Amino acid sequence: MPVFTRLRDARVRTRLRDARDAHPVAARALRRAVHVLAAALVVGALLMPNTAPGLRPDRFARIPAEAIIGAVLLLALPRRPRIVVAALCGAGIGVLTVLNLLDIGFTEYLGRGFNVVLDWGLLDDARAYVADSMGGARATAAAVGAVALTLLLVTVMALATVRLGDLLARHRVRAARGALIAGTAWVTCAALGVQISGVPVASDRAAGALKGQTRRVVDTLRDEAAFAKEARADAFGATPPDRLLPDLRGKDVVLAFVESYGRTAVEDPLIAPGVTRVLDTRTAALAKAGYHARSGWLTSATYGGSSWLGHSTALSGLWIDNQQRYRTVTSGDRLTLTKAFEKTGAWDTVGVMPGVRKAWPEAEWYGLDKVYDAFGLGYEGPRFSWSTMPDQYALEAFQRLEHGRKRDRPLMAEVILTSSHQPWAPIPELVGWDELGDGSVFDAIRKAGGKPSDVIADSTGSRREYGRSIEYSLTCLTQWLERYGTDDTVLVLLGDHQPIARVSGTGASRDVPVSVVAKDPEVLEKTDAWNWTEGLRPAKGAPVWKMSAFRDRFLTAYGSVPHPTGG
């Protein structure tokens, strides 16, 4: 250490000592306040739940076993080892706190906890979502703030634990007596099952959180090999092209995913009246045009976001509920429903993906001959928060570029509608289909729309605007079918997942509606065994399938013959 550094540190210590000597009462009060704050930070972190509903005062009125064990350990160590152990334990508590906060955020948005193996990449998606919704500057500030807060939390927790270790050492006898009393109280409360507001007083919350994170990691690593084997076993993997989908030959088939279209939209007391009115009105309008529908429920593999997991689950026949499974299946040759159409050689296959803004190699796995991403649909209008363009424009562009074009063979299209993506502000409005042009007509609508910041923090407002966005998307899609559909058009309409917990509620199901719409009565007769509800609105008690069952049931219903490949 340079001489000037030692001199500077000595001067600082001298000044602090002089200030302490000059104001002994204030110095003592400040020292005690810091001790109390350090203890509150450490104990609070050890008791911290990993769900938002669990953040209640009674959850922090408990005795943490980890604090008692830590105190005994620090009392038994000499000074230098004590400082090292205290710092490491404090940093570990800080890291565990960060993981608890991530669990809270992931549960709120995705209905599950944070996976330390798989989910780091989703943090970049979260930053991109904030940038799309709130602006790049705010996204950057939020990212920098999150990193700074994480480092600060780990550092402060380490310093707090070191300080408490020093305090215990200075008052070793009283600290040992206190640890004995606290340990006895913990054992007694645990043995008697003592509770406050239904919460056990004796807590091992931090140990449980660490155990849960460890189990999550182990399960993830085990799942990889098991899922890879499952993906290789495909009931239709070796089916010859002429045995795939023979009962849909000559039909234009559109598989349309509506973003965040879940059971909540049809059953929530605030949201459902508007959505069900649209479903019933549009069912009647389509019937007048000669179309009929049948609807049921699918249980999505994802919740609140990660739409690609829902898409791949529905189309692959596999339960793809995390990024590792998605990478595994998309790197293989699993037969997707869309690829089954391509494999026959009887359809042209295209994808309309207005949410895709970067390279998308999965197109080959999906069996799509051509993909129209956010930059390929000719849109020159404004963005609507995360959504790059209104659904009405995307559907009109699909009509202009593909569906309305003369062709030698029918069309199979996968269409992803994005206007109902959170934060549900601003929401587009319907305009005349002949007025869409290049999308510039939406400039005034965008400027007059709501601000994401006004909706994101408002649960009731989010629910209301979510419902409006679903009404918009469903109206666009069914008007497109009514306007442009033919006798040979078959529409399969389904949601990809439920909206986030702020809208759907804690513990909501993962069910999403699914409908098949067609003019040809034989197309719907093929689904008779499904016992689905007539019309676009599935009954509450309509059959519920896992989303991973949809591919095989659809292939079977329309005449495909299983020829399995081995696992």
Automatic annotation (TrEMBL):
**What does the UniProt keyword field contain?**
Membrane, Transmembrane, Transmembrane helix
- Bilayer-crossing residues are 29-48, 60-77, 84-102, 139-162, 174-194
Q: Which residues form a coiled coil?
A: none
Q: What is this protein called?
A: CDP-alcohol phosphatidyltransferase
**What is the phylogenetic placement of the source species in the record?**
Bacteria, Bacillati, Actinomycetota, Actinomycetes, Kitasatosporales
